[in-house]
Design a protein that fits this description.
This protein has 278 residues and is of the alpha+beta class. It contains 5 helices and 18 strands. It has an 18-stranded mixed beta sheet that branches. Helix 2 packs across helix 5. It holds the Pfam family PhzC-PhzF.
Length: 278
C-alpha cells in the first residue's frame, strides 16, 4: 500500500453538505482497475474518482470514474469535483480560466468563473425516442399512469440515461418509485416549476441495480436533459435546475449555452483533505 492524497468535495450546492459528495484519490498511478473498484465500493458514495497523469498532451490531468459497482466513461458531478480537487492540490488554470480533463469519454473542457466550475456537455451517443413498451414499464416503475409521461427519450452520454418529462415539478417531487422494478435502468425525470420559483426545473435521478437508488444531484443527467429540452424548445438557457429536494439536499445546476454548446455548472466545496493508504 502507498500513502496517497485524498479529498472529499461537495458538488452542485453553495451550502456545504447539501449537494452530492465525491471522493477523490490523488496520485493514483499503480492502482489496478480492481483496486479502484474495491475502494469505490468501500466509500459507498455515488462516485469515486482517481486522478492520473494525462495521456493526451491536450489534457491537464486524467480521471477514472467509478460507482460502487462499475467504471463510467463520463459523469458530471465527478468531473467538477475532480477539477476542484486537482486545483486545490496545486493544479494551474490555463489562460482564459479553463482546464481540460481527460476521461474515457474523451477530453472535457472545464471553465472556472465567478466562484463556479462548469463543464462542456459531451455529445449524446444515443438520442432517440423510447419505444412504447419501455415507456409503459417506466410509468409502472415510477408508480404513475402512462398518460402522465409527456415524452421519453434515450439520452446517453456515458451513463445510459432515459429522460422522462412530466407536466410539473410538483409531479416530479411526489414520485414514489419502486426500485425493485427498475432492473438496470437509469431514469431521469424532469418537470417545470411555476414561473415564480427560484429554479426553472425540478430533476430526479433513479438508478436501478445500484446501492444508490436516487442520486442527489447529477451533472451528466442535467447535461443530457438540457440538450433535449433546448432542442424541443422547452428551455432557453441560461436556467437553473434544482435536484435532491426530497433527499434534503439543495442541489442547484446552472445551465448555459455558448456557441450552441451546453455548459453545466455549479458550486464545489472542499470538505475533507488528507491521505489514504491504498
Amino acid at each position: 500500500m502507498k500513502v496517497r492524497g485524498y479529498s472529499e468535495v461537495d458538488v452542485f450546492s453553495s451550502e456545504p453538505y447539501r449537494g452530492n459528495a465525491l471522493a477523490v484519490v490523488h496520485d493514483a498511478d499503480g492502482l489496478s482497475a480492481e483496486e479502484m473498484q474495491r475502494f469505490a465500493a468501500w466509500t459507498n458514495l455515488s462516485e469515486t474518482t482517481f486522478l492520473l497523469p494525462p495521456s493526451s498532451p491536450k489534457a491537464d490531468y486524467r480521471v477514472r470514474i467509478f460507482t460502487a459497482k462499475e467504471e463510467l466513461p463520463f459523469a458530471g458531478h465527478p468531473t467538477l469535483g475532480s477539477a476542484k480537487a486537482w486545483l486545490d492540490a496545486g493544479g494551474v488554470i490555463r489562460p482564459g480560466g479553463t482546464l481540460v480533463q481527460e476521461c474515457a469519454a474523451g477530453l472535457i473542457p472545464v471553465r472556472v468563473e465567478e466562484g463556479q466550475l462548469a463543464f462542456e456537455a459531451p455529445p449524446l451517443t444515443r438520442y432517440e425516442p423510447v419505444d412504447e413498451p419501455l415507456t409503459s414499464r417506466i410509468a409502472e416503475i415510477l408508480g404513475i399512469p402512462r398518460e402522465n409521461i409527456l415524452d421519453a427519450s434515450w439520452l446517453v452520454n456515458g451513463p445510459q440515461w432515459i429522460g422522462v418529462r412530466l407536466s410539473s415539478a410538483r409531479e416530479v417531487l411526489s414520485l414514489q418509485p419502486d426500485p425493485g422494478k427498475a432492473g438496470d435502468l437509469e431514469i431521469g425525470v424532469v418537470g417545470p416549476h411555476e414561473s415564480t420559483e427560484e429554479t426553472r426545473f425540478e430533476v430526479r435521478a433513479f438508478v436501478g441495480g445500484d446501492p444508490v437508488w436516487e442520486d442527489p444531484v447529477t451533472g451528466s443527467l442535467n447535461a443530457a436533459l438540457a440538450r433535449w429540452l433546448t432542442d424541443a424548445g422547452l428551455a432557453t438557457p441560461p436556467y437553473t435546475a434544482s435536484q435532491g429536494t426530497v433527499l434534503g439536499r439543495h442541489g442547484r445546476v446552472h445551465i448555459s449555452l455558448r456557441d450552441g454548446k451546453i455548459w453545466v455548472g455549479g458550486h464545489v466545496t472542499s470538505c475533507i483533505e488528507g491521505t489514504v493508504r491504498l
